[in-house]
Amino acid sequence: MDIREQLSQKKRIVIKIGSSSLAHKETGSLDLIKLEILVREISDLKNQGKDVVLVSSGAIMVGKHTLGFTDRPKKKSEKQACASVGQARLMMIYQKLFMEYNQTAGQVLITKNTMVNDLNRFNAKNTFCELMSLGVIPIVNENDTISTYEIEFGDNDTLSAVVAALIDADLLILLSDIDGLYTDDPHKNHNARFVDVVDSLDENLISMGKESTGTDVGSGGMATKLQAARVATAAGTDMIIANGEDFHIIHRLIRGEKYGTIFPAKIKDEYFLIDYLDKLKND
After folding, report:
1. 144 is in an annotated binding site
2. 126 has binding-site annotation
3. Is residue 156 a known part of a binding site?
4. Rg (the chain; Cα; Å)
5. Which of 38, 40, 36 is nearest to 175 (CA)?
6. Rounded Cα distance, 40 and 50, in Å
7. Is 220 assigned a ligand-binding role in the annotation?
8. Domains in the chain: ranges and CATH
9. Are 3 and 197 in contact (CB under 8 A)?
10. Where is the Aspartate/glutamate/uridylate kinase domain (predicted)?
11. pLDDT given for residue 45 in this prediction
């Protein structure tokens, strides 16, 4: 069976949404129509009997507009204030929309310390498992309100891959502002070639990762997505990078339609996540 045909059989799915995929390009404010489509897509996956975890950026973006910032705040204290206001507002919107589809959402805020500490990680896994056993859709974000450089992941691509590994997810979907992996930045090089399937993450492919998203909204570029692919595939999780311009792409991906770049899972390395988190602890 083709790798894409197998996607319909995935039972535990993590979906990561970048800030740029949630916002109107013209204003940077939340695109409520897109958000409603996202919730409907996830709710339908739940109705198919699948576990779904949503890793959602957007807290600082929402808080920025609520508090009247015209540009993305630069001071750590300003970012934390925006995150505090924005996370509460974003969750309120998610809760309201999921309730319309008879689904229950729960909030899980994480820092790097949550994962690198053995006891915290054990408790986090138990929390995720209990939420999913109760039919809840966990909505995950980095805890930007209290995060500092020493305890932050810094991007939700890495966070989503670690969460996928933690909960033994079958599939990780990263939705961003790009169709997938190219041989160069397609915003700058029109001759860049699209890569459909990545069977091996060699150094040549890693060098294709750029530290730019093409927007001033998010914090993760292609480099962080390739790092996420390393973590997810080593944990036995298939991963897809796809364009989040239209959230209907979620059910199209699950049906096996040819969108995005897919990174097939490797044989699960039971110690990879622990080793990776040990390295993070020292960064």
Report:
1. yes
2. no
3. yes
4. 18
5. 38
6. 14
7. yes
8. 5-282 (3.40.1160.10)
9. yes
10. 11-243
11. 98
